[in-house]
Design brief:
By secondary structure, the protein is mostly helical. The protein is built from 15 helices and no strands. It has two domains: 1-151, no CATH class; 153-311, no CATH class. Helix content is 73%, strand content 0%. Helix 1 (3-35) packs antiparallel against helix 10 and helix 8 runs antiparallel to helix 15. The protein is globular.
């Protein structure tokens, strides 16, 4: 496969996954806003702060009100991480490799883009926001279902999966890094009940709230949350699960092209290191440094993938 086609597949999946991650983060913040109106947490402002585009926001908006932040994150084309821009980029990459995709996969991607363009062509109201966000999440889920159900599990599939899971691993790591101080053991004594809504935001933004409660029967403990989001082998958005998928897809590509790649070696090492850390994790890891190093390694893996396959 030509490097530019692999690049299109990889980034199409990354952009689509990022748009879903952003939608889930807004959903979690909206749920918190509606459930805890009396609390003075600047959650809307924090989304802008960690987006990397706070300077762009400040040039266009006077304050970090809910309405301003929502429209900036969803439909502002000056924000390169807004959902409308991400969906447009995903579709543009998809068009470049249309011949590699089944009809079902292309239609699911195209419908995501059409729905997004229609619903975000005018300013978003709080009344319409839940439906718009749910449609974005459902569209991404439909794409993945079509991908699994209709595509050959070959190198095309591998590049799409690599894009999905490198983006997902990075998103989970950055979400933990943003609120790592809430996941320290001391958070229970320092914050007490007041930290629980913040833990809920974190879990909901990663679509992990219900599954965590199923496993832990409603107990919210910081060390258990961090362990779940980093090391759980069953949770599709845990860092361990994402790294396992990256390893398997890179191993498949190594077999397909009969070549050992630097990215494959790094993914195997990262997978092995996470396995060792999981066994040794008895609240003994330095969470902040551990997550910071993971973010660096994920970014390094992304660069090696780009170099190995001539993106």
């Amino acid at each position: 496969m030509l490097g530019r086609h692999g690049n299109n597949l990889y980034w199409m999946a990354r952009y689509l996954e990022r748009s879903e991650n952003n939608a889930r983060r807004i959903q979690a913040t909206l749920h918190h806003h509606l459930s805890h109106k009396d609390e003075d947490h600047d959650e809307w402002g924090s989304i802008v702060a960690v987006s990397g585009f706070h300077d762009t926001f400040n040039l266009s908006y006077e304050n970090r009100s809910m309405t301003n932040v929502i429209n900036f994150l969803l439909r502002d084309r000056k924000n390169l991480n807004s959902i409308v821009v991400l969906m447009s980029n995903a579709r543009q990459n998809g068009r470049s490799v249309r011949a590699y995709l089944t009809q079902e996969v292309w239609q699911s991607l195209n419908e995501c883009w059409i729905n997004c363009e229609y619903s975000l062509k005018r300013q978003v109201s709080i009344q319409n926001l839940p439906i718009i966000l749910e449609d974005i999440v459902k569209g991404s889920s439909l794409f993945r279902g079509s991908l699994y159900g209709t595509m050959l599990h070959n190198d095309i599939f591998n590049f799409l999966r690599l894009g999905t899971f490198i983006e997902r691993a990075d998103n989970t790591a950055r979400a933990i890094n943003e609120k790592y101080y809430l996941l320290l053991e001391t958070a229970t004594t320092i914050g007490g009940q007041e930290d629980k809504p913040q833990w809920e935001i974190l879990l909901r933004s990663l679509s992990a709230w219900r599954s965590f409660n199923w496993l832990k029967t409603g107990r919210l403990k910081p060390n258990e949350i961090s362990d779940f989001l980093i090391f759980d082998k069953r949770m599709p958005r845990s860092i361990f699960f994402c790294v396992k998928e990256l390893k398997e897809n890179l191993d498949d590509l190594a077999v397909t092209y009969s070549k050992l790649y630097d990215s494959s070696e790094l993914s195997n090492k990262l997978f092995s290191d996470l396995n060792v850390s999981s066994v040794a994790n008895e609240n003994k890891i330095d969470l902040r440094n551990f997550i910071s190093n993971l973010i660096i390694q994920i970014n390094t893996l992304n660069q090696k993938i780009s170099n190995d396959f001539n993106f």
